[in-house]
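G., before I forget:
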Amino acid sequence: MLLIRGCVTGKRMSGLILQVEGLSTHLGSESEPVQAVDCVSFEVRRGETFALLGESGCGKSMTALTLMRLLPSSGRVVGGAVLFEGQDLLKLSEADMRRVRGGGISMIFQEPMTSLNPVLTVGQQITESLTAHRGLRGGRARSEAMELLQAVGIPDPYQRIYEYPHQLSGGMKQRVMIAIALANEPELLIADEPTTALDVTIQAQVLELMRSLQRDRGMSIMFITHDLGVVAEMADRVAVMYAGQLVEQASRNEFFTEPKHPYSQKLFDSLPDKDKRDRQLYVIEGFVPSLQTEFRGCRFAPRCHRAFDRCRGEEPPRTTVNGRQVFCHLYGGDSLAAEAGPVSTPGRPHGGRIPLASKAALLRIRNMKVHFPIHSGVFRRVAGYVKAVDGINLEIPQGHTLALVGESGCGKTTAGKGILQLIPPTGGSVIFAGQELTTLSHAELRSHRDDMQIIFQDPYSSMNPRMLVGDIISEGLRAQGRAAAPAQLQARIEQLLDQVGLAADSVARYPHEFSGGQRQRISIARALAVDPHLIVCDEPTSALDVSVQAQILNLLKQLQDDLGISFLFITHDISVVAYLAHEVAVMYLGRIVEQGSVEDVLDRPRHPYTQALLSAVPTMDVDSGRDVIRLVGDMPSPSNPPSGCYFHPRCPAAMAICRDRYPALTRLGNGHETRCHLYRADPGA
Amino acid sequence: MLVLFWTDLLIFVLLAAAIAFSVYAYRREHLRAPWRRVGRSRVAMGALVILSAYVAVGLLDSIHYRQELETRTAGGQSQYSNEVLSLFDWMVMPLKTRGEKTYSAPFATHLYAKETVERADGSQQRLYPRLVFGGAQLRDPAERGADIAQRATIGALKGSALWLLVATFVVQAAAWRSGTGFRLLAAEIRGDLTMTRWRAALLTFLVLLVIVFVAAELSSGYHILGTDKVGESVFYQTLKSIRTGLVIGTLTTLVMLPFAILLGIMAGYFGGWVDDVIQYIYTTLNSIPGVLLIAAAVLMLQVYLDNRSAEFASVAERADLRLLFLCLILGVTSWTGLCRYLRGESLKLREIDYVQAATALGVGHFTIIVRHLLPNVMHIVLITVVLDFSGLVLAEAVLSYVQIGVDPTMNSWGNMINSARLEMAREPIVWWSLFAAFLFMFTLVLAANLFSDAVRDAFDPRLRNR
Amino acid sequence: MIAYIVRRLLYAIPILIGVNLLTFVLFFVVNTPDDIARSQLGDRRVTQEAIDSWKAVNGYDRPIVFNTKVAGVEKLTNTIFFDKSVRLFAFDFGRSDSGRDISYDISQRMWPSLVIAVPTLLVGILVNITFAMLIAFFRATYIDFWGVVLCVILLSISSLFYIIAGQYLLSKLFHLVPISGYDTGLNALKFLILPVVISVIHGIGSGTRWYRTIFLEEIGKDYVRTARAKGLGEGIVLFRHVLKNAMIPILTGVVVVLPLLFMGSLITESFFGIPGLGSYTIEGIQRQDFAIVRSMVFLGSVLYIFGLILTDISYTLVDPRVRFS
């Protein structure tokens, strides 16, 4: 069956901490298994960081869980070997395997919020690992735990050890997870997307911690991620997974300078950044196949721009080219590559661009506040407010894209909903095309709803699963009383589907029949149906894989060119901002700290927070030599912001005045503004 | 002359609603898919067959009429009997009419109690007299074993034959619809290879038919579950109790559903003072222990009905009204759980993206509730309804035992147990009434529980990914 | 925290008023005092005099909510509503329709109820958790499957069956324990065994199945995977991690019924002849003694609301996420 393909070489190499040979894992029923991991072979050397890169659902986490033998109950290993320090983990008894878990190999997970036991203290969760492997108990275990907390950079370990996980921030929890993993000085640390759930400034802290721990302890790290930037920062060697298989293995430098596999190449091309602003992004058409299908030939062939006949009929050989492994017919040795498609199709330039001359603001937001009351006491009196949005000013001209950038909890999503009056603002004004929206009654507002629309982050919860796509798209038309005769309505729906690149027969299907990217297209069609002038895009691509994200970004840009729609683009992803936005506003703790044109803000950031945020984004330039400005601590709670400048407790350039007064607006010319005491306040502001 | 009781009316309203919903659901893939998952469970298919049998008896027992009497009034108009019968009574008339004097054990040929009998020679003797109907066809009671075996065999053969007929018809119809050949489909069913577990359903059906026919065949000669104190067939009583159990189990949820759904969704969606008021209402109702509220209400109802007994045309009508009120009261005590659950769910749904998107598109509150909230909480409603059913059937027995259940004149398992309990001390023990009531109740409740488990597994999105 | 408890206590007041009004409407508006008197006196053809004298003796001869015949505050207090309903707030239950002091009866009869209910609850929880842990340990095996099937079968059996079958088997057939009855002191023990055992067995089906669901839900969570990744054994994972988290819903589910234990179990007590509050209520119902039923409704509500408050408090004690926020 699986071994017939000869994916096990049987070669045993030395100097390795881990050697995985032809590993295959299936999930679900015997008859129609999900082939989550198929014939995967790689090795991790002593002291190196090995990155396993892939999009969601490609089997990278399942690979890690298979190594640890922590598969869910429906999972089973169907072939292969996992050699850890010479012994095959898959052949160990459960008791022996337990000694390896948390002893020789440790693992940390993606969600620090749920990965710690909520009813045990941090100390208990660390010491039980010490007890299980080293028999340490009582005071000795406790002091060891405190040392571990110190080692992962947690302040006041004497106190923290008695705290419960919910009392720690996300970044702190992940540090605790790392402390647990390090408890017994493992040879290998498996980190499964350890920073994906964290903000970029916190991610920078955790990555730095992992690097320094590796330097000090000389352990190996297997780093699982979907983020090319993180790979570039962390890895010594890289393996790329696609649809359950390894498609390429290389050293970091080789991989980033010259990716071999068409999939790897396409991944790079589809990443947005500012150099690609004037072009459409390269896209990988289609989407990742279901792992339940029976594959023939190369699994990437249906989406590959260079695929030829052989790719579709025959599984590619595992070729080693100059010490690099590529799983592709293009490198099959015999020069069949001639049949292949062109190396690369350049992205089309955007056409028919509307000149951005009209500077008259379509949407004008003045001092908008959204405060949520905090109740306390016997009679639930209002004791304070969570100032989610605390007086922001924004202007969006026709046909422009304003990006609202910030980390989670800064209030950017609340701001978006406040503008749409989905959450009534507590103060300030929102003026759309001269019409004040905050004073409108519920009924009046309904008739103005066609001016502005919204697209959400999660493609799964943004559509009613019990409605047909046609009904979803036409919902706005009906609500606005614009539903014409059935035939016309049908024509309009089909036109909208065509506009977002979906087939006309989608009308009579349900949302669950579509992939994440296709659902986002439906959401866009629903918003477009009422001919809005402005669309609030609330992180529309952050739940999508890179290859699909490119499709959606292209679509949005195309729509702006064709229809002159304005976007308020809410995101935390700087590369998307660089690609898409005209203006940028950076939010911190409910307020805007800096705004201006995309060039000014991203290339010449003035506010220390903007500078730190930009520097924390991992980049793929292997030798960019950039310095990460490390921010200390976490973002404070918006219910109790610090005095003076909200950023001063974390600011590397804080001065005395920063503690006392919130800085006034400083105009830096060309619409570039910031609120920071470093720059002399503009007397006119 | 047809007689329509209140509960009959509601039962048929419920039936119509169920049929309408299945037609509606059949056309919609997302509604059909979970039912298909139910069909994949062998246990559920078997349970469904059993439940259908109970429902069939319950429905037949809900078509009531009064017999036309032979005598006519002076004006030549028809006169009707005071006794209300049902279609089911008509079908099992021999069971109803062939009473004995008092207790007799299952399959007995003689009465349970000794009687003084005058012999031909004038002397008197105390002995167990022969039954009037049970085993009356036997010349010698010793032939009983052979007779029973013979009748059982005939019944089993008849049942199997009918099953063969029905099964052939069903498979033929299914084959014709799906376009597969009869032989192929039959082979697939035999191998249990079909997605919907037809084999389990058909096998259960076979067992059911055989039991029904054996019971029918034996009943023509014996009281297969004995007779009670006044000599009425226990088998008849327990069959008649099916309707009571079903009515309690279904109508209770039917009457509470509108309140629970409307108030629950409103509380969650609108929040604010609407939420406060609704929460207050259900917390208050919920804080009265259920049994006590039922006891208080039924006591009051009893006083009310007692003082107005003249206003009812028949005892059966009064008993029916009491049954309906019992359902109402049970509904009042049981809607709060569902209401609270729906409130929580609506609270979540209110914030979900597609509801926000609808608001952003200018869709009105009412439309949002009907189009977005209601369809997405219906699975909770359905799960609650099927899960509550068995609990209510069991509750009927307990309440009737405490004498705050159905009318004492009504056939119900609770009443059967209650009257039989008093005879527990007798020697030899009169066990058959208890046995019959518990057996039929257990079968119904077990089938309902197994079926509702499958329904919950199929409909609960949280369980689906396990 | 204290503010929270005070708030919960204050919220109980309008609810109790609601309960009180509701029962008042149920008992005095649906049927007039005359109707009640008539049904109490039993006979269909009772004279109006008999009715009037019954009402006078039992205090039903006053106007329902407003008395115009007297002066001052008495206009409100000298009414059926005040006498029969408002007094309940001071736990003054008055006299039953047969003339007994209800408060005294309650104080006498709640102890036997407790003696049955407390061991039933404790043993029940212990047994159910043990079985549920066993089933959870063998999850996705045949033991799990048949365990659940057994649970469904057990919970499909009527509680009356358990009692009748238990009495028949243990008392009548094997003469192990008395069928029913009660005694004071240690002598009560032999009367207690049967009702407790039967109540526990009756609860196994639903209890075990419910706890199993809770355990499985916890087992599916991320922190369990973390615990396994530490190399902990299955036993430690189950007892230290899963059980500790699962105890939060289990305990709070138990706390809410704690005060109601005073009320006893209607069915068990009346079947086994235990002179507790449960059988007291049943007697009240069967004798159509409205004063007793009314008192028990109010008492039950008070205890239930108290249970709700205890539940909220126990949450804050058991769950560190609530305790430290």
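Chain C has a mean pLDDT of 84. Chain C touches chain B through 47 residues (CB under 8 Å).

More on Monday.
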